[in-house]
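Aim 2, interim progress. The first record below pairs a target sequence with its structure tokens.
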Amino acid sequence: MVFNKKTITLKNGEVCVLRSPEAKDAEIMLEYLKKTAAETDFLLRYPEEVIMTIEEEVDFINSLREAPRDILICAFINDKLVGTTHLSAIGERFKISHRASFGIAVLKESWHIGIGNALITEILKIAEDTGFELVELEVASPNYNAIELYKKFGFKI
């Protein structure tokens, strides 16, 4: 699924562009994954576990762009990738077809300026528009900043 490009103004006055990644973004996506993984222990991998090749990342980006119910949205400030969110169907079986999971990461230097709020707002709109009735996520209990953000959107911890 492809997200239609959207421009927002952040709390600090900077302009942020939200859009789906394109094949040309593969290398910066991999660099971003390594950087966010190094900045916190709350993500699912260590930097050295980001081992995809650029070609594999291009394939991943293209598969998401073609997927009917999965999407990745990137946040860019001055063409620098500073945040991402991803929505995925839990499964296609009828019993669970109404459920989706999402994840989010923002570079530490861009925390507390509204990127997380913007990304979650957009991903939850897409979830609703796509027909998902339940959106799930996992969060580590010491990740207080994330927990407070999720609670603002009605998530129960």
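The second target in this work package is listed in the same format:
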Amino acid sequence: TGHVIPTKDINAKTIFVYVLGGITYAEVAALRLLGKLHGCKIFIGTTSFISGGSLLKMLSPPEES
């Protein structure tokens, strides 16, 4: 899954960002802001999106069965 940030400049630089292991929605927002501020097209790819709940689940010890 990726996001495209459109820019008005046809000669704008294009940056590809791929994150292995997942990216948070806040990190995607930060990349979008950087692209907007610098006039770049940013394509974001990742293996998964990480929410607050999934982050806590990854950090907690495994449940015993």
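DSSP finds two helices and five strands in the chain. This observation will shape the mutagenesis plan for the next reporting period.
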